[in-house]
Amino acid sequence: MRSKKTLIHAAVDINQTANQFKSSIVLVMDNKVVDAKSMLGLSNSVLTSDFFRLEIYGEDAEEAKKAMRDVFLSNGLPVEISNK
């Protein structure tokens, strides 16, 4: 199990990465939808979930998908990116 401090650090990394893009980046987990650019929602979600699905839409979506996948994986968090 990952420590709370490590998960908070992951939330900061995810938030900072998401905010580099114009695209909408939302995290879907446990019947909740959270804006990855919102530190408050993201912090609680990273602390309470074991698996994450991202939905990314917008003009720089392809670049955002790669960067978001990389930041999740570098923090040891499982992620699926929706291709809707």
From TrEMBL:
- Top-level taxon of origin: Bacteria
Question: Which residues are in the HPr domain?
Answer: 10-72
Keyword Ion transport listed? The answer is no
Q: Which UniProt keywords apply?
A: Sugar transport, Transport
What Pfam family is a match, any one?
A: PTS-HPr
Q: What is this protein called?
A: Phosphocarrier protein
Species this chain originates from = Terribacillus saccharophilus
